């Protein structure tokens, strides 16, 4: 097998890679951020070098290669349609069939002399190791969860420590996710605030903006509680259900906003925005379950069946108060 | 992962100890300390930490593990309810 046409990739990320990372973190063009599937080389691998398997989401590929300084390896990129390893494994696109397909189309059996594939551990929900071996003869060895542990994993003869096998959810991870969540929520919040500014009364544009922002502030506080504060303070907020954590923080933050803006809202309007803001915080906090590393679908469904009726109920009561306020008097 | 504990008593993970051959594959693929290695078999130590990703059941060559796999994501589950289909995340 002629391997001269296997592209070599650097372990250093350039400016374009860094800009791309920043861009997709804000949700711009994320699903198009892909590289062609197939075989790549890092360093100067020979037929005895390890084969590392990854997804064709460029952010995942970059995360892997940037941790491989001083490593000579083959990198087998699966076509996950631009989705990261863990999510793609859940969907099955990072899976047994695609892995076997790439082994065959790249002619890997003639490139390497051994029969081992190092797959990321988080690819395991899609890959049946014993099936891969049965179909194409390659043994799947599950590597560490994080790319940064790969050099140590390879040096120790492909042994992963308990720490390498566990997912974590550090404050740093959560802060990074807040940016991603905010980018998503801004698309909804900006038009809503714009409408409130348009509907607000006042002499000048400045006046209207001020009144609109003051009117919207408790709801914005609810959004802030659900999208920013719950992720950051997650382990320290009482309760197991995210909807409960969101309702607790939401009630505190929305209540505090109302207390800090006396005279802006009447008593009825205060009850209305308190209910709505708390419901919004609870709902948005619940949405964060999908970004975490420790929630089960059975658990999420359990809390949704209980929390959704309450969230909707609070919003309906708030809407009822608004209708009475506008048309009743 | 101390401090992170989700809803208790709801996960669907089950192990048939009669089928387990002690290959320890489930321990290798599980991202949380759900399993415990015994002498020639494994046991489920903490089912409440299971996230139902399905990796253990898929990689068990003996079919000793059973779990209803899925994503622990409210948006995906909501989408599944609305479209009456299997929950699927857009991430």
Give an account of the 3D structure:
The complex is a heterodimer of chains A (329) and B (91). Chain A has 13 helices and six strands. Helix content of chain A is 57%, strand content 8%. With 329 residues, chain A is of the alpha/beta class. Chain A folds into two domains: 8-165, Rossmann fold; 171-328, no CATH class. Chain A is elongated and about 80 Å long. In chain A, the strands form two sheets. In chain A, strands 1-2-4-3 form a four-stranded mixed sheet, sandwiched between helices. In chain A, strands 5-6 form a two-stranded parallel ribbon. By secondary structure, chain B is an alpha+beta fold. Chain B has one domain: Alpha-Beta Plaits, CATH 3.30.70. In chain B, the strands form two sheets. In chain B, strands 1-4 form a two-stranded antiparallel sheet. The mean pLDDT of chain B is 92. Classes of the chains: A alpha/beta (329), B alpha+beta (91). At the A-B interface, α3 and α13 of A face α1, α2 and α3 of B. Chain B: Keywords: 4Fe-4S, Iron, Iron-sulfur, Metal-binding. Chain B: GO terms for molecular function: 4 iron, 4 sulfur cluster binding; metal ion binding.
Task: Tally the structural domains of chain A.
Answer: 2
The neighbouring-strand order within the major sheet of chain A is 1-2-4-3
Biggest β-sheet of chain A: count, sense, barrel?
Answer: 4 strands, mixed
| CATH topology category name of chain B | Alpha-Beta Plaits
Indicate the mean pLDDT of chain A. 93
From the N-terminal CA to the C-terminal CA of chain A, the straight-line distance is 83 Å
**Poorly predicted sequence stretches spanning 5 or more consecutive residues of chain B:** none
| Secondary-structure element pattern of chain A, one letter each | EHEEHEHHHEHEHHHHHHH
Number of helices of chain B: 3
Quick overview:
Chain B: Residues 11-36, 40-70 form the 4Fe-4S ferredoxin-type domain. The complex is a heterodimer of chains A (329) and B (91). Chain A has 329 residues and is an alpha/beta fold.
């Amino acid at each position: 097998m002629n391997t001269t046409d296997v592209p070599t990739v650097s372990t250093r990320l350039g400016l374009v890679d860094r800009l791309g990372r920043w861009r997709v973190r804000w949700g711009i063009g994320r699903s198009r951020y892909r590289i062609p599937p197939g075989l790549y080389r890092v360093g100067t691998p020979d037929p005895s070098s390890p084969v590392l398997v990854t997804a064709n989401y460029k952010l995942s590929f970059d995360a892997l290669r940037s941790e491989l300084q001083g490593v000579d390896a083959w990198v087998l990129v699966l076509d996950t349609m631009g989705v990261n390893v863990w999510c793609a494994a859940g969907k099955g696109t990072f899976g047994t069939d695609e892995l076997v397909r790439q082994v065959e189309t790249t002619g890997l059996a003639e490139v390497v002399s051994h029969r081992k594939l190092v797959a990321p551990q988080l690819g395991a929900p899609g890959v049946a190791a014993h099936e891969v071996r049965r179909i194409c003869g390659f043994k799947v060895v599950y590597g560490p969860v994080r790319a940064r542990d790969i050099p140590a994993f390879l040096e120790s003869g492909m042994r992963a420590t308990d720490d390498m096998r566990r997912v974590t959810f550090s404050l740093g991870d959560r802060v990074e996710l807040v940016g991603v969540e905010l980018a998503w929520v801004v698309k909804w919040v900006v038009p809503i605030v714009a409408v409130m500014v348009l509907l607000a009364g006042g002499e000048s544009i400045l006046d209207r903006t001020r009144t609109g922002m003051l009117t919207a502030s408790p709801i914005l506080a609810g959004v802030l509680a659900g999208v920013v504060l719950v992720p950051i303070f997650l382990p320290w907020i009482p309760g197991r259900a995210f909807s409960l954590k969101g309702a607790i923080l939401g009630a505190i933050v929305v209540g505090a906003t109302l207390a800090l803006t006396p005279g802006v809202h009447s008593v009825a309007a205060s009850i209305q925005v308190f209910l709505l803001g708390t419901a919004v915080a609870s709902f948005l906090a619940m949405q964060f379950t999908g970004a975490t590393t420790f929630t089960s679908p059975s658990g999420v469904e359990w809390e949704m069946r209980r929390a959704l009726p309450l969230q909707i109920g609070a919003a309906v009561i708030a809407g009822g108060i608004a209708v009475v306020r506008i048309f009743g008097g | 992962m101390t401090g992170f504990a989700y809803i208790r008593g709801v996960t669907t993970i089950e192990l048939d100890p009669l089928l387990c051959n002690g290959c320890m594959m489930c321990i290798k693929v599980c991202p949380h300390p759900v399993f415990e290695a015994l002498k020639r078999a494994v046991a489920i130590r903490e089912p409440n930490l299971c996230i139902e990703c399905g990796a253990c059941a898929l990689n068990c060559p003996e079919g000793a593990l059973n779990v209803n796999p899925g994503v622990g994501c409210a948006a995906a589950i909501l989408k599944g309810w609305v479209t009456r289909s299997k929950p699927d995340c857009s991430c």
